[in-house]
Specification:
Radius of gyration: 19 Å
Structural class: alpha/beta
Helix content: 40-55%
Largest sheet: 4 strands, parallel
Shape: globular
Order of helices and strands: HEHEHEHHEHHHHEEHHEH
Strand content: 5-15%
């Protein structure tokens, strides 16, 4: 197993080396941090990290991305991107929402990369991303974005294992997703609602919950956390604090999803419709 993993790592390095100069779409998450580290090791100064800032992403993640890029010694460009929030079709939140977003975001990254004479833009998709409804993948293919981790066949588990060996602080970091993924398809997205979700999740993280999603259904909050964190909600003092905070944010009903955290839970309705 170790031999296979090392072979994959060497194949990844060789693939990136063949590109000579690259831009990494950098979120500061597990996958993009690992990809950026390998690209830096292989290409040195010929790699640039680009992070887009918008209300779609938790504010704490922007700061963490900045700190990681600095620690790796990588040139890091932070660019404000709010055009997607002017796209009325995106704001209506259709099932192809992610496609619309990726087209806009990576179009922006392509423009920035051209200024530096770089034609290869890399994203951190891995093979596990193929197991869920990901319309954003279509946008990446249309725009010619490369996904080296996916091309080599890395799984999330393998990326975490190698990240730990490389001493990356993200090796055990919870999975990330843009805040738009907290809204059921068809429920309109707006800046205030995004801020409310971000603040609600930040409040729960400050209670010691690492992996959390606050799914927003107008005046209802459906909270997803790992099952081992359920006990936090069963403590009377914590429960009262959570309810008070969420009602201050505008939620009328505050619920805990007994199935716990899972990726792509908002796509479950699509799978059910598809099976009918």
């Amino acid at each position: 197993m170790k031999e296979v993993l090392n072979r994959k790592l060497e194949d990844l390095k060789e693939l990136i080396r063949s590109m000579k100069k690259v831009v990494v779409a950098f979120s500061g998450g597990v996958d993009s941090t690992f990809l950026l580290k390998v690209a830096k090791d292989v290409l040195g100064e010929d790699v640039i990290a680009i992070t887009l800032v918008s209300p779609l992403y938790p504010q704490r993640e922007i700061k963490e991305a900045e700190e990681i890029a600095k620690s790796l010694g990588v040139k890091h460009i932070i660019e404000i991107e709010e055009n997607i929030l002017k796209n009325h079709k995106f704001l209506e939140n259709p099932p192809e929402r992610c496609y619309l977003c990726k087209r806009e975001e990576f179009g922006k990254i392509i423009e920035l990369a051209k200024k530096y004479g770089i034609s290869y833009i890399l994203d951190g998709s891995n093979i596990d991303d193929l197991g869920d409804y990901r319309p954003g993948r279509r946008a990446l293919k249309e725009l010619g974005i490369r996904s080296p981790l996916l091309e080599i066949g890395f799984t999330k588990k393998e990326i975490r294992e190698l990240s730990k060996e490389l001493g990356l602080p993200t090796h055990d970091k919870p999975s990330l997703a843009c805040l738009a993924s907290r809204f059921p398809y068809g429920e309109r997205i707006d800046i205030e609602a995004l801020k409310r979700v971000d603040e609600a999740e930040e409040f729960l993280r400050n209670l010691g919950i690492r992996q959390v999603r606050v799914r927003n259904y107008n005046n209802i909050a459906r909270i997803e956390v790992e099952k081992e964190d359920f006990n936090i909600f069963f403590d009377n003092e914590n429960r009262e604090k959570i309810v008070k905070k969420f009602k201050e944010l505008g939620y009328i009903y505050v619920t805990l999803d007994l199935e716990g955290y899972r990726t792509g839970s908002m796509n479950e309705i699509l799978r059910r419709i598809g099976n009918e």
